[in-house]
Amino acid sequence: MEAEVDEDDGTFTNISLADDTVDGESAVLYTKQENELSIMNCDIDGDMENQVEMEEKTRLINQVLELQHTLEDLSARVDAVKEENLKLKSENQVLGQYIENLMSASSVFQTTDTKSKRK
Q: Could you list the residue ranges forming a coiled coil in this record (predicted)?
């Protein structure tokens, strides 16, 4: 059986009249101010833990976003390098064919029969 506390008076919180022990331990009476202070301390501790958790989550989210942007930038860079590589390969093929045509047209690079020149 518990007594209710007059909210205007506020001297003590609920008092159990049935037993002097709670869970095998001695019952302790707290003033309303002590009880509120205890609750406030729990709230502050909980709020601080929540704040630390939120800061950690925010930091991790920002880190993930930064890594995603870095990955996107790297992916775009890889695509650009691939395109540049294909372009350079194509240009090299054109230049190789051009050089081959010049060599075949020039008498300097013609194959000569060394036996026919000696006779």
A: 57-91
